[in-house]
Amino acid sequence: MPPPRAELLYPPPAFHFAVTFGSNAKDRDGAFREVTGLGPELETETVVEGGQNTFVHLLPKAAKHPKLVLSRGIATMESRLLQWCQSVLEGGFARPIAPQQLHVFLLDGDGAPLRVWAVSNAYPVKWSVEAFQATRNEVAIERIELAYAGSSRLV
Question: GO molecular-function annotation terms (predicted)?
Answer without folding.
Answer: structural molecule activity
